[in-house]
Design brief:
This protein is of the alpha/beta class. Among the domains are: about 90 residues, DNA Primase, Chain A (Alpha-Beta Complex); about 250 residues, 3-Layer(aba) Sandwich (Rossmann fold); about 80 residues, Arc Repressor Mutant, subunit A, CATH 1.10.10. The chain is built from 21 helices and 28 strands. A 9-stranded mixed beta sheet has the order 20-19-21-22-18-23-24-25-26, sandwiched between helices. The protein has a 6-stranded mixed beta sheet with strand order 10-12-11-13-14-15, sandwiched between helices. A hairpin with a 3-residue loop joins strand 16 and strand 17. Helix 14 runs parallel beside helix 15 and helix 18 crosses helix 19. The chain is globular, with a radius of gyration of 31 Å. It starts with a helix and ends with a helix.
Amino acid sequence: MDDIKTLDREKLLIEDFRNALDLNVEIKSKTSTEWRGLCPFHDDTKLSFSANIEKGVWKCFVCGGGNHYQFLKELGHDVTKYHNGHFISKKDTIIQPKRKEILQNVIVSNKPLKEPKNTILKNSDIILKLPRILQYKWTQEALDILEVGCKPVDPKKEKYGLVFPIHNEKAEWVNLWFHKPICKFLQSGFKCQLYPLHLIKDYDKDIPILVAEGMKDVVTLVSYGYQAISGTNGSSIPKDLTPLSKFRDFLVLNDNDDVGVKTQEEWCMRLSLLKKNVSYTEWGHLSKSYPIKSDITDIPHDVFIELWNTSVNYNNMNKKGIRTMSAFQFVEKSNESVEYIVENLLTEKGVLVIGASDGVGKSLMASQLGICISSGQQFLGAEGIIEGFKVIQKPVLLINFELSDKELAMRITHQMQSEELKEVHTDDYEAFLVSRRDELSIFKDKWDYLENTISKNTKIHGGVLILDNLYSSTNKNVSENHELQSVLSRIEDIKQKYDMSIIIITHFNKTQKGDILETRHITGGKMLTNYADNVFLLGSSQYINDLRIGKITKIRSGKSEIKNIPFKLRLQEQDLIFYRGEPIKNEEAHFNGNASMQEVDVLMSMKGKVSKWLNTNNEMFTINQYEDAMENILEYKPKSEATKFNWVNKLIKLGIVKKLGKNQYKPLWDVIEDE
């Protein structure tokens, strides 16, 4: 009978665990058993928390972890209902952060050192809780997990020196580094090793490792939520880098001085010899200058993000040395025109990013591009109506993570039967390959799958890969630079290895009313748009129903007369094909979202009734004339005198009315004529 009760309690505990996770954890990805999200026990922004529902366990990279019982207890739940005398004792094995017991504010006596691995903790007069004056921009979580302390130098004047414990892989202290003003190891003759060696095994192999010049910068980077390492001996590099063998991507940082540049170069060389994908940053490319000897801890987080965005791939620069040529050859080579596969949008071996808000038709645009490129038909054009973008025929692979196979097949069928494409020979579509989305699980990293697919289909080598979309292709948070970098690294590898051109479909972050089409709205931010050769943005007009707007905001190679000029996009509902229309004269009006159609209807009702004023060539109306038009349209007179002024002011903000003087308003018919 007791065993039955135990099983009932176990079932109840699992159910309560699941419900508590739903209520308290912001889940970012999950399967039937594995959940991952933001930890509820600390201010988490880096998806530190994971849980296994089936096993009833949870873990946080910062806080530790435990079983389902401890999770509920930690949240303040009444856990007595799960007790039966022995049930909990079998499950109650908590995973605590290493060396949690030493995080109190204690002073230990300083005695002669004999066995550093075992007695360092007992033989140093360090304080393990930093005074506020030494906490810099560091989080308590980072200080706890790295066990950074301090040593009083002049307590009366509140002067302290930082103390960095050096751990082995078992998290045992093997030495202490006394930072300024002392600058020495407690145990002399210490050989340089990786720092923090005890955390490296827990780092995610699919997220880039940031290589800093010193341990202080590591604490800063860990506080930001990144995976960071350095050597223990300043600018020296450890001989043993085997703990890094499982990692692929590295970003090497440096202090802003000559020693920093030299150390950065040595790190890059050592890591590239280990066949790692290595990038490095350049202080000189920041928007403003910083003093010599500045380091990562000296600059704000937003400046660090800017520094990250200066990164250059070391491997591409150094695989065969830097290629040189005569000045004449260089000029001649540089003047060669870039070949466009899709005019204004996609170059040979280039990357096009298409960003759009929800509901615009990103997936329709992706399949239309696939059809046009594989058949060599113009893109966004209509015969006899408007000229589209010229296209060079190439094989295409469309990877679809958005739609069911049935829905995508229906859309492609409609597009192939459109007026513009129905004459295309079916043999041309043999070069248009489409992945089966129903065989894939979303929100898992699929880049091994993608590369295997491309590797086996040799007919698409040298062709075009269309990825719909970036967000669903991986379990990484592509809004975070350090996670996006690993995804872009895979894309670049595929591009180079198989001579592919890449089209990446991505979403917009949340926008505000009045936001026009700008690259800053793209999920992935500057890192993604800096990587891309061309950027094409799509949006929906808030002013005219069913009107889309397109704008090319970046063209790296060549010139274009339509760059940064918004244009209309019409979607033919019958054949699901986009057609390019005329330029938009007032982009702000389409995204303002402040005026209802009534304000515009009243204005349009005045067309043909507004007279030109004496001695001018301007058609103008007064507030009273607009009020009369309001009464005719609304069939009632507004109760408030302010209403008529508010409506006209909205039209002015929309850019379709201009105030010329006191009680003199000019309607801009040419702006709104087509709209």
